[in-house]
Amino acid sequence: MQTPQLAMRMEAGEAAPPAGAGGRAGGGWGKWVRLNVGGTVFLTTRQTLCREQKSFLSRLCQGEELQSDRDETGAYLIDRDPTYFGPILNFLRHGKLVLDKDMAEEGVLEEAEFYNIGPLIRIIKDRMEEKDYTVTQVPPKHVYRVLQCQEEELTQMVSTMSDGWRFEQLVNIGSSYNYGSEDQAEFLCVVSKELHSSPHGLSSESSRKTKLLQARGTRM
């Protein structure tokens, strides 16, 4: 048989603890709270809900003026998806984000923002950013350049070829210039470089020596 005091607490949105929860220590029955989230009832404590002082749940269980009706059992009615409320409640219990493998982090983030749970919002966003960065990583790509130079320029060109550029092939295309009494042979020099992808696109840094290579142009 319920006492008038217990019945009054249940009407206020509180519930008696489950069997074996133990006595009136720490505030008696009043420390237990029922939440009806989208038709699913959750039973927890005021201490858990008040873990984040600025959250919607903390304000709710502290009796602040929030628009929340109650069902026939006195549980607070919250019109949100119960699927994502479990991880929210567990985070308030032990401070860790634990998700089933098929649960979308975006859904939990949406609920965390609704309930205004700052630490959880930051954790989820960090995890999502890290996951996005990992997904965008792809094997390195090779970029090739064909440089046309004269015989006397070969030594200088090879000495300035650094910053990841690698010599691939040298092709003699014959003599096209005549200086004085000597013909100057011309060559096509094929060089390559690895470029790694990142979330912001291919790396494009160019040092002074790389710019010198690029300044020679690509002449076929």
UniProtKB/TrEMBL annotation:
A Pfam family annotated for this UniProt entry: BTB_2
InterPro entries attached to this UniProt entry: BTB/POZ_dom, SKP1/BTB/POZ_sf, T1-type_BTB
GO MF term set: cullin family protein binding
GO cellular component, one term: cytoplasm
Organism superkingdom: Eukaryota
Residues in BTB domain copies: 31-132
Disordered, as annotated region: 1-25, 197-220
Compositionally biased spans, kind Low complexity: 7-19
BP GO terms, sorted: positive regulation of cilium assembly; proteasome-mediated ubiquitin-dependent protein catabolic process; protein homooligomerization
PANTHER family the UniProt entry points to: BTB_POZ DOMAIN-CONTAINING PROTEIN KCTD17, POTASSIUM CHANNEL TETRAMERISATION DOMAIN CONTAINING PROTEIN
Protein name from the UniProt record: BTB/POZ domain-containing protein KCTD17 isoform X4
UniProt source species: Cricetulus griseus
Gene designation per UniProt: Kctd17
